[in-house]
Structures are given as structure tokens and as C-alpha cells.
Fold each of these.
Amino acid sequence: MSHQGTSVPPASPPPPPAGRLPKTTNRGRSSDPIDSSNSATSDFPELEYFGVPGPRGFPPLTEFLDITDVDMLKSRHGSNMSKHHTMFFNSDNLIVRRGQEFQVKVTFNRPYKPAKDKFALEFVIGSSPQFSKGTYIPVFPNKERQSSWEGRITNTSDNVVTMGITPQTSCIVGKYHMYVAIQTPFGIRRTRRDKSRDLYILFNPWASDDAVYLDDEREREECVLTEVGVIYHGAYDDVAERYWNYGQFNYGVLDACLYIMDRSQMPIANRGDPIKITRKASAMLNSRDDDGVMVGNWSGDYTYGVAPTSWTGSTDILLTYASTKLPVAYAQCWVYAAVFNTFLRCLGIPSRVVTNYYSAHDNNGNLKMDIILDDNGRIDRNRTRDSIWNYHCWNECFMSRPDLPPGFGGWQVVDATPQETSDGMYRCGPASVQAIKHGQICFPFDAPFVFAEVNSDVVFYSRRTDGSMEPVKVNRTHVGRMVLTKSTGEMSRRDITDQYKFPEGSPEERTVLEKAEEYGCKRERSDPSTADVDLVLPTLEVSLGEDFQFDLEFVNQSDEPRTVDAYLSGSVVYYTGVTTAEFLFRDCSVEVGPRKSVKESMTVDSKKYMKYLVEQANLHFIASGKIRETGQIITSMKVVVLHNPKLIIEMPSVGKVNKEMVAKFEFTNPFSFSLEGVYVRMEGPAVMAPKVKYYSVITGGSSVVWTEVVTPQRVGESRLIATLDCAALRQVSGQASFTIEA
Amino acid sequence: MSHQGTSVPPASPPPPPAGRLPKTTNRGRSSDPIDSSNSATSDFPELEYFGVPGPRGFPPLTEFLDITDVDMLKSRHGSNMSKHHTMFFNSDNLIVRRGQEFQVKVTFNRPYKPAKDKFALEFVIGSSPQFSKGTYIPVFPNKERQSSWEGRITNTSDNVVTMGITPQTSCIVGKYHMYVAIQTPFGIRRTRRDKSRDLYILFNPWASDDAVYLDDEREREECVLTEVGVIYHGAYDDVAERYWNYGQFNYGVLDACLYIMDRSQMPIANRGDPIKITRKASAMLNSRDDDGVMVGNWSGDYTYGVAPTSWTGSTDILLTYASTKLPVAYAQCWVYAAVFNTFLRCLGIPSRVVTNYYSAHDNNGNLKMDIILDDNGRIDRNRTRDSIWNYHCWNECFMSRPDLPPGFGGWQVVDATPQETSDGMYRCGPASVQAIKHGQICFPFDAPFVFAEVNSDVVFYSRRTDGSMEPVKVNRTHVGRMVLTKSTGEMSRRDITDQYKFPEGSPEERTVLEKAEEYGCKRERSDPSTADVDLVLPTLEVSLGEDFQFDLEFVNQSDEPRTVDAYLSGSVVYYTGVTTAEFLFRDCSVEVGPRKSVKESMTVDSKKYMKYLVEQANLHFIASGKIRETGQIITSMKVVVLHNPKLIIEMPSVGKVNKEMVAKFEFTNPFSFSLEGVYVRMEGPAVMAPKVKYYSVITGGSSVVWTEVVTPQRVGESRLIATLDCAALRQVSGQASFTIEA
């Protein structure tokens, strides 16, 4: 017998119901789903018999040792928390660090007899505990029988045994559950699952064999325990500060950080490795690809979220993400860096926020940013598409790099701001700062990209009418002008440029750039002759709304007279270097005698720029021109930061724990126009949880006052941080510091 | 005046309309959207005036040179296509390779006068052409004025000028548009946009300074031009073959490959770099993360798609993806590797599919696969969660690695099969094969992961009743037993294991493993003593549905008698090593005299395993046991591949171009049961496009015959490949080869 087939189109089988493919399973793919949730748990049985029951069933286990109580010794002032540097955490559970002993008290129904009684503490993480994956760890009290975590009895009195447990220094970081198990000849008898016995194990920068060990107590205190930080912005010659409440010890923040890893489906077994955790987190903190924590928005329109300039700390963002399970709107680079910092410090990975002034971006690791001029030396804004960020913030975190050759441990760059073209993925790092300084960019992860951020050249091209272009000036010092971070233990800035680069012009710098080129970085090789007339732009401090004078200076370095046809263009720019509107354009012809200089002065009228303002009110000036005698092109660039009005917070300078204090916040609208839809936020560590007030209008010249009664919760230096935000005026902030005494 | 604010919850502003965030724009983020679509174009004006019009407007440009015709010389038999090794492409446009001259004929309205007339050919790619990004390239005919692509006049006769153009060897790969532009003192006059002048520029393995240069003509022909390949599967001691029609030259396939890059939003400017392209493609070929080309499915249920075992080539998959813009269902590892191979060969990157037997998977770069035995030496299937794939297919592609130190160019591993735990992303590579062989796994990308796939140890643990485990046997040779690829120029296999590993037991092998450990790979350090009784399992060739005999041999290597308590467990496994059901379990106690061996024979009844069959019918046997005298644990594993019935394709061995030939396909159901819902697919390069037939039922013992009339399109060796697929019987295939004469 033979069958006759029917022809079907190659796209073959029946189409799925609604044009969508059904969810496929992993049945034949892996024997178990990968264990990637720290919130998932597995319950262990209270009674677990060995073998098969005898003719009368299993014997009762009651004749053996029984457990009447387990005390996790989790008091904030107890020795576990203080010895483990976790006493600031606001949590209901024990929090300790790996590679260091902690104590647990077990009470039995009768005195423990070491020779006869066998028990173990069992630590379990995730839904699929396995000894060989480090997700199930029994800890034994006797020397002869030890597993990967050390155990010993540190005290015995009556029925009570105190066990010292030292988690392996490479163990998984997260939330564990603990059981006490009594072993009998017939089976195992366990404590019941009890959430109050859950404990968190964190990274330990104090343990010398931990991958995040940092051998400097002041740095550890700064980069792990400090809750308030300063993030730098503005311009390299007019640095501005932003205070931030990292809040890594606030209630719920640690759980939110673990939720982020769960959400990313990061396998539990990887969570002891700071390289894998930081790489994963750099992807997860932005919402691209993976519905991560924060939505980036640089549009100026923040209607359905919080303006990036309005946040005062990380707590709100992390708790909102963990509770809504939706990305939080909105972030820009310093928000990404600040929340990432909270994540890292919370888990115990030393970290800090750094700011790079004039950061090359989105240019895919090439060492060139292009500015196109026309035949006459005037900037061609349509063809100039690269932008140099006035500043960019990222994080450094401290860890060893066993995956790389020796010498590349220490500070590592990680960056959660979504980069448009970094290897196509919205994540970056960890990249060794040492490797970047030495041009050793062949090692993972994303080193060429970070190298370009601090080392790109700005290349000015002159475009001919036939479309071809010629480089006329190469500025090799503009990008990566300065890298700042907060000083250790102080509210001041620290210049760490030398950790990223050798001094400009040094032989080492040259070697490094050649090394980077060997690894495929493309540089502009041509070296157009330097013009003999300099164009100098002024350094100014200008308040928002102020008219100001702007001088364009021509300095003739030659022994002959020079005539320059020059252009000055002023635009309002985002901090990303993207220009919005040209508010000023001037051309002039200037004659300069030999070895002389000439100034062209002009007044910039605030009315001209005020109408174009975007949130971070910066003005970008580009001057360019052509020297008639030589045909050479000259250029110069300058960012002028407009200083915003300030918020004032008035507080007594000293307070007492649990005693009310009054904080007074005040703001006066300095403009003639009304501010509408104004949000004010205020918070402070261990003093005040984030609070928001809304003012529908603040008329021109008028003031708002907000008085808040706060209750400090613990001794030490503290601070209140506030911002004011509305569509017409962003990035207004203020802060006050004070001391809390006992 | 003072305003009173209202308190609002910290989650502040009005919630977005339907709980979802509005689409945010990139306005202040980058000055231009990143140009990432090769299908987007920008139209250049036909007339582009310089400066401003005079009092009478612009002068007419008609007095200058005018273009009457442009001939791209795109005939398949013309010198452009044959010199560029692109003559097999079925396309309406010119296809050439970079770094090598091609010719274009321009006809003017009068003879061209080199001294007076100025013209250029302009090549443009993407929507935002820029000279400095390599997306706008003018090419000039005169020596004095040359841009990044060389131009010269190779012939002039009457009004016709033939231009030779040599694209830079690092230029972007993709579809360009070409304009002819005449430059006059008043402006530029251009040809109109004409799609027939679009041309494709590909990688060039024949050009010595191309990053994909491969200095071996036979390898280039195999790895770029060959359309049919063999992919190996089965077991290392019973290798099976699968023929595949890569179809890289079929109509529409090149456009589909460019669409894949567009869909991935890969910036156009990166598309000259084979490292970036292959990395991106390894992510894009699977649908995870990015709605890429193929949906993986290992569930056994392929109701709403095509079973992975049913495909005969890549064309269907790529064309369906490009037209529906939806992921195509379904793929498993060899399908990913085969379609990736088409993508690479189509773009001109030399590539081949390799098969690794016993591939360690999903274990995150650790060098350990765990098998858990109980106290008695019997396998604990609940606790054994790692699976070793019987085989795994990936790709190698050939390129230089300027991003790495010297010595790591050449073959690179890329893998599009979504790995559950590879750095959390569903992509892998390029990883240098040289680097893997030498344990230099500190270099990007994903080298530790590939290293583990070929070098992991299998560790047998004995689990004590208290939950702790002890390694009792370490098998260091099981994983990565053999790596195969197709021979160059022949349909036979080539063992390339030595390209990945030094010989087992050699001093180099030891050094390499130590090097890998330095870079953080975790190995099992313990070395349990080897037992003195060997357990030997037979190597068998078994046909599906056959009963067969299975011998378990105990070889006593000691001088004393031994008693072994042994267990034999037989399971049906997916090729991923995941077991479905245990169809056989036997225990026995065997006494073996000194230096003697004993065989335990058993018959495996086909009824027992047939009911559990999954698509790739493999049986997995694990034998284990404990020696009474010494307490040592012994183990052994074996995969038995069940051989499927074959399809028979009958064809004359010789045919003629454009002359009809008859192909007869025949299959007999060898079973007593009916096969239902049967799909048969057949295709062959330049002979037959993929075709599918459906048979609702093929009763037991009956046959189906499909007669197809085909018309060969070109001279050479060709082949028809067919598969038969239904839920009860998968992976049935057949093929026939024949010669086409002129």
C-alpha cells in the first residue's frame, strides 16, 4: 500500500493561535531549571528516615536529642552585627559577612553529649539546594567532620550550646535559611522552617581572603559604611556638587538588592562572585533589555515620572522597584551611578561614584570625536554628530580579578548608564582601572569603551565642497580632562585623574596610547600644524538669569600681523553635550599685531538664553575662524555652567537620639515669572525617610517654607538633603549637616 | 507671600495612563539617533548649489558634463562577480568584496576631459551618511585627489568612462547606494537614486589585508563558497551525519542576513568589524533577549512550529524570519550552528560547523560536572542535576584578532545556542581556539565557557546520610572526547580535537589546566584512588525498534578475589543528556577471581524503551557499584545511539543544466504501528527550493513515494537532502548526490 502526500508551503505546520508562539518549556534542555531566585525556598522535612521502615514502622526519634530553641543573636548591638560591620542595617534578621565567624545559640532538651549526640546546622539558599553547588551547607561541631564552612562549639552551659560558624570566604551572598538537624541511627530530625532564622551573608572587605578585601580601614568605612555622598557635576573649571543619600542600610533596601538579582534570573550559584554580580547589575540597573531598575530619560519631559534632577537618594527608587516590579522613571547618569553605589555598598562591595569631565560617549570605543567645520572655519552643526558629555558619572568597585593576569585587581569601572553603542548591550564593566591606565584594553570587560571615554581626541575637520574632509586641528587634551570622586572621610573632592591616565605629554602617556592602538583603538594619525593665533575663551561663574559679559581673546604668537575671520556660536546644551538652540551667533574680523592680543567683548543677554533652557542649564560656546594670511583654522570651546538659586535648610547643629528636631526648608523664587507644578523632596539617613511636597504655583519673588519635625534614630553625623524641581527650573538643591548625640 | 505645599507620597507625579510608561525619547541624549539600519536610506539632491544664488538665481548647470547612463557591470558571468567570488549569488544587484577593485561604466553626454571635468562616484550606506564614519565615501578618478577608497579610470572610449573602484579593506559590509556626481563651480549635479545601482560589499577572505583573510584556497572554497555541508551528531564511538543545505547564495538570503543586523540595531559604523558582527550575530540568531531568528525548543512538543530535526537547510528559516519579522520555531544546537554558518558564509566570513562530543553545558565555566551516588554506589537521579550533552554543535569563524595580543587570530568559536548561564546573556564568542588550547582564557569573549565545554571533569560524589559529599571518582577524559568538522573539499569527517586540546596526559595538557585555574576556573582538586575492578560497557550499533543484548563486564585488575555489588540503570535521554525515563534497572552481585573478568549479560527488550522515546533516540546506561573488600566505588557510562530507518532518494547520477530530472523519494514504515501527521521536506542547492509534503498517516509496514521533477540551474556537483518527521519518529533523513553537466 502506498500513501499520497499533500504539498504544503515550507512555512509548514498550523500557525499558532493568535500569531504568537506558545511558551516553550525546557523539558529536554536541562534536567532542572537553573536555580536563580533567592526568594524561592525549599522546605526540608522535619523527619527524614534512612532506608525502609522495619516491620513495626519507623521507631520514634523522641529518645534522641531534641531542640527547644534557636537564637540567631541578631541584636544590632550584639557582637555578631558589630563585629561584622552590619550594625547600621535596619533589618529583622541576622546580617553577617562571609569568611568571618558568627555565633548561634541552640538550646536542647537536655545537655549535649559530644561523644554520643550528632547534630549539624544546615544552611540553605534557593529552591534547589545542592552541596556541590554551595547552596546546601551542613556545618558540624566536631573537628573530625568539617564541610566547606567551619563549625565549632564556642560555649556550652547546661542545655545551651553556642556554635561558631565561619562561612567560606567565597560563599554565595544572599539570604539563607538555617535548620538545626539531629542525626540519629534511623534518620534526621530537623527544626521547622522559621523565617526569623533567615540570615543574610554579605561580602566582606574586612576578610583578607575575600575577593573584595580592601586593606584600608578608612576606605572601607567610606566605600561600604558611608550613607551620604557627594556626586560632582558642572564643568571641570566650575565644579558643582550634589549630595546623595545612598541609604544602603534602610529597611528593605537589602531585600530590594537581592530582588534585582532574582529579577535578572542570575543563577544563585554565581552570587558569590563580585565580577559576575557587578557585571549583571550594570545591565540590570537600567531598564533596557531586561526591565531593570531605572528608565533613562534625557528628553526634558518627565511628566509621568520623577525628573532625574529631583531625586535626593536611592531608597525611594529601590523600594519602588521592588514593590511595583516595574522600572522606575527617570534616571540620568548620576542617578544610575548613585543607585548602583547603594546596591554595591549594601552587598558589601566597596564602591564609589566618580565623575569624568568631558566624557567621550556613544562613539563605540573609537578614540575620535568629530567636529565638522565648513570651508570658512564655521561649525557645521548639521554634520557634527558626535557629542562630548560635559561630565559623566560611573562607579568604581574594589575587587580582585582572578580571571585576569596579575596586576589588574583593585578598582574596577562599572557603569549602569545605558550606552547606545557599547557592544550592543546596555551594560559596562567591570573594567580594571589599572588596565585602562596602561592601555591593556584587551582584557574583559568593556575596557576599550572606558578607555575611549577618558582618552579620545577631538578632531576638527574642514569639509570641502566635494564632500571629502581634512583634519585641521586635533585637540588631544579636551576629553577626560579631570576625574573626581569624594574624598575618604570628608565632604570634599579628590582628583583621581592620575589613576586613569599618565600626565599629559609624558612618555608613559604616549606608550599607553600606542598600546591601545595595537589593540584596535582607532586614532586620528594626522597632526595638523598648530595655528599661530590662539583663541581664548573666558572662565566665568554666572547665575541663572544673569546678563554677563563674554570676551573673545585673540592672541597672536607670531612676529607678523594676522587677520582673523572669526565666528562665535553660543548654544544651550544638555549635560550630554547635545545642543538644543543656538541663542547667540556673531562673526567678526579682527586684526592682531605681531605678539599682540585683541579682545572682542560682547554682552550675553539672559533673555536670549532663558527661553531655551533645559534642565541642566549649561551654555556651550564654540569659537572658530580662519587666519587670512595662512589659511589656518583656529578653534576653541567652553562650557559655562549657570548657577541655580539655592534651597536653604535650617537645622540646629546638634540633636539628640529619639528627641524631636525641627527642620525648616525655605526657597524664594528669584525670577519675575511663576514656577508651576513644583515638587520638593527631602530626606536624611536615620533622620527622615524620603518625603515629597507639591506646590502648584510659586509666584515670582515669593517664598515657600516647609517645616518638618524629625526624630534622629542614632548617634553620629547626619544630614538632610533637599531638592526642588519643576519644568521651568530643575536641579535646585540644598543640604544641612548636624550632629546627633546620645 | 508664602505658599503652602501639599504632601504627596514619595512615588510622586501622576501615574502614567495604563500603568505603563510612555516611550521616552532620546532628545537630549545624543544629537542624532545612532544609524543602525541598512535598509534606511537618505536621498541626495540631484542639484546641490554652493553659496547663495546671484541676482538672476543660480545659473543652469546644463553646460557642464551630463550623465546619460551608469552600468554596474553586474552580470553573473562578468569579471566583477567572478573575480570577486560572488558568481554563485542569485541577486539582481552587483555583489563585490572589499579590498579588491571592481569596475563601473559611466556614459556621459560627450567625451570626458580629465583636465576640465570633475566628477566623483559617491557611495552611501545608511540614513545618516558621514565621511568620518565611513558611511559616505566619494571616489575620485584622479591620482591627486583620493579619499579612503581608491579610484582610477581603467578605460575611456568615446563618451564612456570605466572606473575602477577599490573599497577600503576595512570598510563597512552591507548594501550601498551609488551616485555619480559632477562638480561644477556653482554646485553639484547628481544621478537620481536608482535601486538597480545598489551594490553589496562583502568581507574578502581573498584580500591579504582583510581581517578575514584566509591564506588557503581550498579552505576558502570550503568555508565561504560551499553550499552543502555535513553536521556530525550521534556519539563519539558511533558518529552520525546530517546533510545541510546552507543556501548562502539563494535569492533573498543576503538581504535576510542584513535584516538580522538591522533588527539587532547594530550601528552601521560597526559593520566592517568581523569581531563585532559575529558577536552580535551569536546573540541575534536565537530569539532570547532580542526577538532574534530562531526559537529554541527541547521539549519534544513542536506543535506550532517545525521540529528541529525536520529542517533540511537554512533558506526557509532565514527567508521566513525576514518576511514575517518573527522568530522562527524551532531550533536546537545544530540548527543554530547551521543557520549561523549560512549567515557567516553569506557575508564572506570563513566558517564551519563543529561538533563536540560530550559537551559540558550550563555549568557556568566551572570545570566540574557532578554525578551523585548514594552510600551504596547507586546513582541518585534526584540529586544529579548537571547534564553532559551527548554532543553540541557550534561554529568556528576565521579572522584576525587585533583586540588581543598576537597569536590569537585564526579560528574563533562562536555559538548561537542560548546557554542558560553564560554570563547571563544568550550569546557566546568569538573566543580564540588558540587561546582555549593554551588555557589563555583571560581574553574576550566567553573563553572560560568554551574551555569548560571541552575540558570539564566528571566528578562522582558519594553522598553521606548527613548530606555531606565525598568525591569518589574523577573522570578527566569523558568531556570533550572528540571535536569533528567536515573535511575540506570532501564529504568526510575531520578530527580537530588537537586544535582544542593537547593530548590527554601530556605535560602541555597539565600546564594548560593549571593556567586555566589561575584564571579562576574551578576544578576538583581531589584525586580519589582508582578502584582495582573495571566496569566495561559494550559499544553497540542498534537499530530503532530492535531488541539487543547488553553485556556488563567486570575486570578484576588485582591479585585477590573481588565481590562487586553493582547497579545498571538504562534511561532514554535527549541529546542534551537530560534523562526522561528509566526503562531498565538491574542490580547484581558478582564475584570475580584475581586477574579474571566476568560478564553479566542481559537482553534489552525494545518494548521497554520504545514507549519512552524522545526525538533523538539515545539510550544512556550508567553502571556503578561498590567493591565489598575495599569499599571503593566503580562507575561507567555509555550512550547507545539508536539508528533510525532511512529515507531513500533515487536520482540519475548525471543531469544537465536546464534539463528536467526526476527525483524519487521513498520511505517504508518499518514498525507495526502507524505514523501520523508526517512531514517530509526536500531541497537541494540550485536544483530545488525547499518543499514540504504532509502525510496524515503512514500505516505500519506501508510505504510512501514522492516523485518530483527538478531542473538544475548550474553546472557542478549537487545534492538533494530530505527529512521525514512526525511526533513518533524524528530525525529520519536521506540524501542523493549527482553531477550536473553543461
Note: Chain B has a mean pLDDT of 89.
Amino acid sequence: MPVLIVGSIAIDHVKTPYKEKQNLLGGSASYAAIAASFFSPVQLVGVVGEDFPEKYRSLLASRLVSLEGLQIAKGKTFRWSGIYHSNMDRRTTLATRPNVLQNFSPTLPEVYQTTPYVLLANVAPSLQHHTLDQVKSPLFVVASTMDFWIKKAKKALLSLLRRVNMLIVNEHEVQELTGATNLICAGHLILKMGPEFVVLSKGEHGALLFSKSSLFSCPAYPLETVYDPTGAGDTFAGGVIGYLASICNEKNSSKITFEKLRLAVVYGTILASFSVEAFSLGRLHALTQPDIEKRYNSLHALSQFP
Amino acid sequence: MPVLIVGSIAIDHVKTPYKEKQNLLGGSASYAAIAASFFSPVQLVGVVGEDFPEKYRSLLASRLVSLEGLQIAKGKTFRWSGIYHSNMDRRTTLATRPNVLQNFSPTLPEVYQTTPYVLLANVAPSLQHHTLDQVKSPLFVVASTMDFWIKKAKKALLSLLRRVNMLIVNEHEVQELTGATNLICAGHLILKMGPEFVVLSKGEHGALLFSKSSLFSCPAYPLETVYDPTGAGDTFAGGVIGYLASICNEKNSSKITFEKLRLAVVYGTILASFSVEAFSLGRLHALTQPDIEKRYNSLHALSQFP
């Protein structure tokens, strides 16, 4: 089943304690689309400027990502730059230049309008709404966001939460959104805001998947070195929706069970663990299916008990 | 199989965002002994002053904890007071008065000297050494510690690490001990310091069990409210050694496999989850076996995937 993904496409400038790199392919939709493409065909909705390098377009196209919904607008591509501090779990945004993303208001290609699985990756909630408005009968909609939108566009975000099946947030975002410091409370508070499922991603501590009646605690894949955490959450979200679409041939969203979502969260975790092993999409785009299955087996072995 | 536990026995004064309570039974050995006693007979090594309340002595005795190694010394019982901050994962020690613990140098009762399973709960490394010196042929020795000893008695602690099979530390302690911020690196660095196994307890994020060749990621039991985190690590350690002694009838430490230790870590996690639900040993001492098995089943259900 195809997956529709809307989000940002960026040129990043990233500094970590290891290295500094410029003109990297970034953005929530780039990471999510590549991740999802390991499991399902992807329909990308996004915008770039005239300066967008051909090599990045080729990289996306090489992974069976449909670029019919990729608009090239007059002006420059969205640019983001940030710096990671020593423990890699805190970062400072140095500059954000929305450029062509500012006024992006896409009309979805007709073939995209009936896509059953939708990921509203991190981008302005108004754009997430605008995209979802054009999907005729979505079966399962996943959204993610960031602290910036929780602060600046809370009303639009809260109304979005009533339209999606799952929200994926990290620890900082969930605290910003709910005010709760206890993660279990915070997860349940978000369920009350609308989505049937919530994923709380905790980086090196794994992820929690909540429904009203169930909880799944997914371990993190153990990594001794994290080279660049940029896009880990977007990769996770792309892995979740991509895997879910690959195992569900359902016409009915009630068939999308908690058991299937557990597996989707495991695959999201695995894809994210690769993503942080190199800058930009360096590690991710070169992945093979055996690489993924090997980590699946490791993750399984390290979390099971009789 | 019996378990020998040495550690502190304290009278605590604890303040949390919920409540403030005085004259509580505390100390690493108290928590660990009660936790271990749900699985194995316990031999306690510790000291109290003449002010130690009879009701606390009775509480320990009621749980099949041998008090033959409990010394009553002239003077006052060790006292600790601390305050927990809003998110419950940071605390400030307000006062520590070692009192009778200061010069405690026990001679173990003869029957204790051949006990195969030993927990050196958090106390001065010199006292941990002194106790271990008197155990004739220990089969499996677990130690825990705290940041205070890592700072003040690092040399003695490092030499202790070469004498124990397992060290149990939390995130703050492991960073203090190794300087590493990455938890996977930190765990492996401690393995190089001596112990064959390391448990890194992460509170609401669960625990990691390391050996040179294996890793087990144990989820936390989900709690919406933590009333008093005091003693959670000690309870965890007591649960680990108590459960291990209950399933191992081994004369040979090589039979203590990683698979058995996984289960011990799961039971340690469960006991600790009860401990934090009330001040002092309020919840722990009243536990039943069905309470424990119920949480085992929950923890199993929330962590498994196909």
C-alpha cells in the first residue's frame, strides 16, 4: 500500500561534537520518505527552491519515492542550521530560514488523493491540515510535530490531533504539550486530546506506544556512538507508517491492531538507529533489507524474557 | 539458597512534592533485605543504635530476615534526610548523620560465613570489603554504591569491583564512575573494571543488563505516580540477588547464566516498582506473591513482540 508523506525538505548545516557539515539534505519529509521507502512506495508532498541540488532529487527518486508532489518554487530551499551539545540529546537551532516553505500550499496530484496511509511529518500544522483536507478517505493518519509548533500554533495543532490516528512525539514535546513530567501520565493525556495511539520516542531509552488499554515498551537499539541525531524522529515516523502500510492490506482501520503497531514501532526504532550513524541520509539511503533484519533480530534478542 | 546482605539501616526524613514524613525505616540493607526476602531467606549484616524502634526490628523479623548479624551499638541509628524535586528524578540530601554506622566493623556470625549469594548494598566500600573478606567461598557477589563513595572512596571502590560478579548502578553513578555520557559505552567501561555483569538502572526508563557479549533491556513497570523513590535502587538490588538465589541451586558460578540474570533483573524491576508507591517500606512489606506475579505478567505483555 502506498504512503503519502508531507513535510519539509531542507538544506541543513549541522555541527556535532565530532564534525561540522554544510549543504546536507535534511527536512522531516526527506528522512521520513527514505525510511518509509524500505517498506512501501512513497508519495512525497513538499517544496524546494531552484537551488535544490539535482543529486538530492536523484537520491529521493532512487528509492522509489514518487516526486509528482514535489514542487519546485521560485526562491531558495528551506534552510536549517543547528548545533548538538556533548551528550547529543540537547541541540540549539542557530538559524531557520523557511524560504519557499513559507507560502507552500500544495494541490495534491489526483493519484495521491486516495492514498490510505498518511504521514503528516513535522511542518506547520496549517500545512498538515491543508494536506489532510485533500485526502479522500484516509485509513490511518500519523502526525508528528515539534516544540516550535506547540508554542506557536497550538490551536491548529490541537484541532489536528482530533483528525489523526496516531501522534509521535518525543519527551520534550510531550511535556510541552501536556505539562506532565511523568511520561505515563503524559501519554494518556495526549490520548484524551484525540489520537487513538500515541508514540513517545525517548531516544537512547527506546519508545513507548500507548493506546487507551495497552502499552508497548520498545527498547532502543544499543549504539556506542551517535554521529548526528538530526532527523531521527522523522526517520522513526517514516519507518512506522511505511512498515504499517506494508503489512496492512486493510480496507478497515479497525483491523489495524495494537499488535501490528508494536511491529511498526520496532521497525521505526531500527530505521532511526541507522539514521543517527551518519550525517544526513548518509547511512539510511544505502541500507539493505538484511541490515534491517539483522537489527530486528538483535532488538528481539535483547528485549525478550520467558 | 540464603542471601547475605550488608548495608545501612537508617531512620529517614523524606520530603516529596506530595508529603513530608519523619522517622521512617530506611537504609540500603533494609530495602534490599525486605525485597530479597520474597524469594530467599536473608541474613542481614548491619548496625542500629539504642534508639532503633522495636516496630522496625519486628518488621524485618516478620519477613524471615535473620537478625543474628544485626548489631545494636551504643549511640544513635544512622539518620538521613532528603528532599525530592518536582520530577522525582533529582533529590537533594539535606543531612547525613552516620552515628553508629561510622565505626561499624562487624564479625559475621559463623553461619553467615558460608553463604553463597552476597549483596554488598550501598555503604562505605571499606565495609563492603570487610564483609566480603569474611565470606569463605561466595558464589555470586553483587555490589551497589552511590555517587558519594565514587567521589570519596574511589580507590577502595575500584578494588571492590575486581572482587564482585555484578555491579548495579544508576545513570548518575555510571557517569560519575566512567565519565561516559553514552550509556552503552559506560556499561562496557565498567565491565572492563572487573565485574562480569553490570546493571544500569534508569528509573522510569527501565534497566540495562550488560555482559561482555550480551545485553538485556528490561522495561520499567509503568507508574503514573511515584510517591517516594527512596530505596528504589536498593530494593532492585535485593530483588535481583534474592530471585537469583531462589532459582540457582548451583555449586558453580558458571551455571549462573545470562538467561537467569535476565529474570533476576525483571524481578528486581518489579520489586522496585512497588517500593516507590509508598513512603519507606510501606508498600513493600505488605506485598503478596500474586501481586508480584501480576506485575511480571504485565511487564511481559508490554515488552514482547513476535
Note: The CA atoms of residues 188 and 270 of chain B lie 25 Å apart.
